[in-house]
Specification:
mainly beta, four-stranded antiparallel beta sheet, 1 helix, 10 strands, globular
């Protein structure tokens, strides 16, 4: 059974921090790069952070220097530490493999996501 379960979102003031967690199925976690994506209202979903199986880290320019992705293979869990949050970081955050999991019918599989709201 496929599992992607995000948690840790919430509401914070600008400059605040949050740590997101993603519990994934072992079969995903052991064989795929993992990514954190986000989708803001009216915008397309975008990949903001990626960690390869070998530990290479990549970030979107908009979050570079503020966000840190990591993975714990023993717990099949990926994390996203978000510091110096800005209002433009407000979005629903999802984790997934990179590229995203594709179901037999051709559509991508996504978890429920976790809402992050940055506002004063």
């Amino acid at each position: 059974q496929v599992q992607l379960e995000e948690s840790g979102g919430g509401s914070v003031q600008p400059g605040g921090s949050l740590r997101l967690s993603c519990l994934a199925s072992a079969i995903i976690f052991r064989f795929a790069a993992m990514g954190w994506y986000r989708q803001a209202p009216g915008k397309q979903r975008e990949l903001v952070a990626r960690i390869s199986l070998g530990g290479r880290l990549d970030y979107a320019d908009s979050v570079k220097g503020r966000f840190t992705i990591s993975r714990d293979s023993a717990r099949n869990t990926a994390y996203l530490q978000m510091n110096s949050l800005k209002p433009e970081d407000t979005a629903v955050y999802y984790c997934n493999a990179d590229p995203p999991l594709r179901l037999a019918g051709g559509s991508d599989y996504w978890g429920q996501g976790t809402q992050v709201t940055v506002s004063s």
